[in-house]
Design a protein that fits this description.
It comes from Butyrivibrio fibrisolvens DSM 3071. The protein is mainly alpha-helical and 84 residues long. Helix content is 56%, strand content 0%. It has one domain.
Length: 84
């Protein structure tokens, strides 16, 4: 995830290309800055994401983290990225 946050020039150009040629109304690339990027799903969809993760557990090999641990990690990572 940190590598994604620190995209190189070529990667940023890919994002611009996607924004131009594969427009998605729900995508807000202009706010995808290091200070504004969100890694945690919005509250209105959190229950669905939690249910989806629970449904996918059988697809994960070996030990897998519980959903709340993932959210905690993403919250810490988001703070770290915002402070770059």
């Amino acid at each position: 995830m940190k590598k994604i946050a620190l995209l190189g020039r070529e990667d940023r150009e890919d994002v611009v290309f996607k924004q131009k040629f594969y427009y998605a109304k729900s995508a807000h690339y202009e706010t995808a800055t290091l200070k504004e990027i969100k890694l945690i799903p919005a509250d209105y969809i959190m229950d669905e994401v939690r249910e989806d993760y629970a449904a996918m557990k059988n697809m994960i090999y070996g030990a897998y983290p519980d959903f709340d641990s993932i959210l905690t990690y993403l919250d810490e990572l988001e703070d770290e990225i915002h402070n770059l």
